[in-house]
Amino acid sequence: MSTQSEVMLDDDRASDLVPQPASAAVLRVSNLGKEYRVYDSPRARLKALLTGRVYHRSHWALKDVSFELHRGQCMGVIGDNGAGKSSLLKLMAGTLQPSQGTIARIGRVTAILELGAGFHPDFSGRDNLYFGGSLIGISSADMARLEPSIIEFSELGDSIDRAVKTYSSGMAVRLAFALVTAVEPDVLIIDEALAVGDQHFQKKCVERIDTFRKNGCTILFCSHSLYHVRQLCDVALWLGAGQVQDYGATESVIASYEAHVRLQDASAAVSTQAGGSTLAPVAAPLPIPAEAVLPADAPTRGELVSVQIAHLDAGAPPLLTAPDLAVTVTARAPAGERPSIGVMLEQAHGVGLTSVTTNADGSAAVEIEPNLWRATVTFTELSLHTGEYVLSAYLFDSQGLVVYDEWMRCSTFKWIYPRSMPGLVRLPHHWS
């Protein structure tokens, strides 16, 4: 681990800003840019150094990015691969320096980027706590005070005194996360590391980060999981080709990004058809029989067991023969957990129509056997117009933050609306 490590970085300095009231911006970015100079060969680089002439091409990983966040705000950073998201977070953390623009931060900054990458493999886990802690501003005396809680959170037990090189990747990540989040920061920067390890530890990590958010920590959260961006973030920033494509309220930005993704998918489908090839259908997961149970000594984990739609005929795809769409989801949850169950309904070609979850609707699944839960959602007097539709099912923790399991597009059915009408859905309305 070094000061240039991308694992974590804390900053107790008050930054370049004069102390501000609580309502002032905690993180302010103005016209930020990062340029990389691309040379055709090492010789061209040497000639540039010797002559001072330009022999490079400029590649801007980021250009003209501006935003500000206040205490307690959480901003999601979304975009395609290569859009500049990780570069932005590294600039925020200080592991990269900008080519243009300014960054102003107030208070302790903690970055969770590549967890565990900076541990010394020959040191024990305990030694790495003190070594890593010293690099992020935790004194030996403070570490001695924090050490028991860090070890308890990481759940490493006696393994804490083994060399890190004997750890599994999951064990190293547990220790790194516990260390990085041992002290609550003013600004938390997360790059695709919302949850680590097994389901039990994922839940602990998500809950700790959510607690930081509720306590007023400002969070910069980069993820491809739009579900988690929706759940956690007040605002969102969409980056494309290193530039801001949209910035503002989370749902509005995600809607713009999803429209962009649909256009990309449609373009790719057209290109594939023009090339004369066809895409193979995605196989749906095979439902596990509801009567199947884990052995008594097996670790309990969250998993979907079955998804059933009532009133389907034997067609291919089956036809819904009743006016109501009733979907029953059965799932196994970790011991002691009352899970949240979700269902998403889409057109067969991928246009999302609606999604519902038990926790969001103030409902709850029913425990039919120990750790086995079931919930039925009924869409009464289905107002969809004639077409083919697909269902996806999800299993979350009780708060709807941790995704234990998901069956994407697991069930397909056909629906025939009594009258022939254009459009997707018949909305409640009246004439006057």
Overview of this structure, please?
- The chain is of the alpha+beta class.
- It contains eight helices and 17 strands.
- The strands form four sheets. The chain has a six-stranded mixed sheet with strand order 5-6-7-3-8-9, with helices on both faces. Strands 10-11-15-14 form a four-stranded antiparallel sheet, with no helix packed on it.
- Strand 14 and strand 15 form a beta hairpin.
- The chain starts with 24 loop residues before the first strand and ends in a 17-residue tail after the last strand.
- The N terminus is likely disordered.
Radius of gyration: 25 Å
The low-confidence parts are 1-22, 277-299
N-to-C SSE series?
A: EHEEHEEHHHEHEHEEHEEEEEEEE
Query: In percent, how much strand structure appears in the residues?
Result: 25-35%
Helix content: 10-25%
User: What's the β-strand tally?
Assistant: 17
**What is the average per-residue confidence, as pLDDT, rounded to a whole number?**
82
Largest sheet: 6 strands, mixed
**What is the assembly state of the chains in this entry?**
single chain
Given helix and strand content, the structural type is alpha+beta
Features:
432 residues, 6-stranded mixed β-sheet, 4-stranded antiparallel β-sheet, disordered N terminus
What is this structure, in a nutshell?
With 432 residues, the protein is an alpha+beta fold. 24% of the residues lie in helices and 31% in strands. Helix 3 (125-135) packs across helix 4 and helix 4 (140-154) crosses helix 5 (169-180).
